[in-house]
């Protein structure tokens, strides 16, 4: 039996009998317990103290600082550090186009939703998520909340809608060498490319955003449809840079991250990446196309994705795959061409049951929604 009233919920468990839990935004002490709960639920490969230290470091980033990252939890009133269920929400700068025009607002992305195994199935995560939805609709003033989830149907019941979540990936071909990749790339003098260092990232993001706004305004949107764009603000991409640094400390003796992407100025096209060592994937977090000439963009992407492959190979077995979310036809075409030359077959699929994109409009308003671009930089 479960009963709930305002900020409290009572559950009846076989082991502990009736337990009352309180909903609230986590205090600084409770945040640490929320980190621990997220760690033991999602990241068992990293020791708890290391995970907590990493989370504390991430909290200092401009994206999360102040109220940029909020944790909510259900805890025992007589032992507030005993967190039973928790989640976190990180702000997102979004561009929305609907019948009211185009506007920039602040939404949230929810992640790390967890209930301790002992207390699952009593409606706690539902209660917690619903309460956070109420906050988002009220004081949070969030027009949209997003989620990337492994348990999509669970959130649909709570007002979220699942959206298409395509991705393409390719394994590094066996025996591929830096030399061979560099030689192949050196053959193309028409579209020179170069690596982008961490210092360039803010400028690239700002250039990207300026062009995205125009694209959002020009998007051929069907009637009664709303368009949502998570803006690739520098703070958002910086979060991934910091994650890569932390992972490098854990898995690669703190090897310096020298390149965050690659750029082809001639084609006004670039890609940004994140060395996700924990999943052994080089994630292409953003593909910024040149908007005028799809063929030029595709040719540039062949070179840029070859650069990505070089980056992955340079991690000497620690990165085995390249992953791209929401690939455009130019990305798919470029990967196809590169695959033919290098001997790999790109794998296109939908993310069913893992990192599935979902969205909740304020007050669970149901809308026909285009979420574009739906690339990795917007996740978590
Ligand atoms: C998912 C989770 C947060 C649910 O917590 P909970 O407090 O037990 O949730 P509730 O009791 O409110 O709801 C349970 C519902 O979740 C559903 N659920 C749990 N795990 C699920 C899964 N892997 N896939 C689909 N649904 C799932 C249950 O079927 C149940 O549905 P019902 O209400 O129709 O019976 C919890 O199982 C958990 O911590 N899992 C591990 C972490 C995780 O996967 N988090 C979600 C990441 S986005």
From TrEMBL:
InterPro entries: Acyl_CoA_acyltransferase (IPR016181), GNAT_LYC1-like (IPR055100), LAT (IPR053013). Residues 194-378 form the LYC1 C-terminal domain. It holds the Pfam family GNAT_LYC1-like. It comes from the Eukaryota. This is LYC1 C-terminal domain-containing protein. It comes from Apiospora rasikravindrae. The lineage of its organism: Eukaryota, Fungi, Dikarya, Ascomycota, Pezizomycotina.
